[in-house]
């Protein structure tokens, strides 16, 4: 392969990982996620902060419930309700406690309980 082809393949992989839901576990809707009892991480496709959190959590991130606010209007409304009307993600809920764009260490601590 030529250098140009390798660069194009790498660029395509970067786009797929950062702009698609591929690195995120499939999730239930907002209502079902709330009933689950696990921490809920609200995210959206293309969010670099969401991707950073997902990568920082590694396999431990699968213990959380990931809800995409772009595909669930109820989830988007919940995020707006705690962020002054903005859809700022990642927003993490543990019960009724929430944090917006929390440090990965805080989320790891919650998931390790």
CATH fold node name: Glutaredoxin
Give the radius of gyration: 15 Å
Low-confidence stretches: none
How many H/I helical runs?
5
Query: How do the strands of the widest beta sheet line up side by side?
Result: 2-1-3-4
Number of strand segments? 4
Distance between the termini: 48 Å
Mean pLDDT across every amino acid position: 85
CATH architecture: 3-Layer(aba) Sandwich
Query: What does the main sheet amount to?
Result: 4 strands, mixed
Which H/E pattern describes the elements?
A: HHEHEHEEH
Beta fraction? 5-15%
CATH superfamily: Glutaredoxin
Structural category is alpha+beta
Shape: globular
Helix content: 40-55%
CATH class: Alpha Beta
- Total separate domains: 1
Name the descriptors.
113 residues; alpha+beta; Glutaredoxin; 4-stranded mixed sheet; 4 strands
Describe the structure.
- InterPro entries: Glutaredoxin (IPR002109), Thioredoxin-like_sf (IPR036249).
- It comes from Nocardioides mangrovi.
- It holds the Pfam family Glutaredoxin.
- By secondary structure, the protein is α+β, with helices and mostly antiparallel strands.
- It has a single domain, classed as Glutaredoxin (3-Layer(aba) Sandwich).
- It is 46% helix and 14% strand.
- It is built from five helices and four strands; from the N terminus they run ααβαβαββα.
- It has helices at residues 3-19, 30-36, 48-57, 73-82, 104-111, and strands at residues 40-43, 65-68, 91-94, 97-100.
- Strands 2-1-3-4 form a four-stranded mixed beta sheet.
- The longest helix is centred in the first third of the chain and has 17 residues, at 3-19.
- The model has no long low-confidence stretch (mean pLDDT 85).
């Amino acid at each position: 392969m030529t250098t140009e082809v390798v660069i194009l393949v790498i660029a395509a992989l970067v786009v797929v990982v950062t702009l698609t839901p591929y690195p995120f576990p499939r999730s239930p809707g907002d209502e079902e996620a709330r009933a689950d009892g696990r921490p809920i991480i609200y995210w959206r496709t293309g969010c670099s902060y969401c991707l950073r959190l997902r990568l920082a959590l590694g396999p431990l991130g699968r213990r959380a419930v990931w809800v995409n606010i772009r595909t669930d209007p109820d989830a988007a409304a919940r995020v707006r309700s705690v962020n002054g009307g903005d859809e700022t993600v990642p927003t993490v809920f543990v019960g009724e406690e929430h944090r917006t764009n929390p440090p990965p260490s805080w989320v790891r601590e919650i998931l390790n309980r």
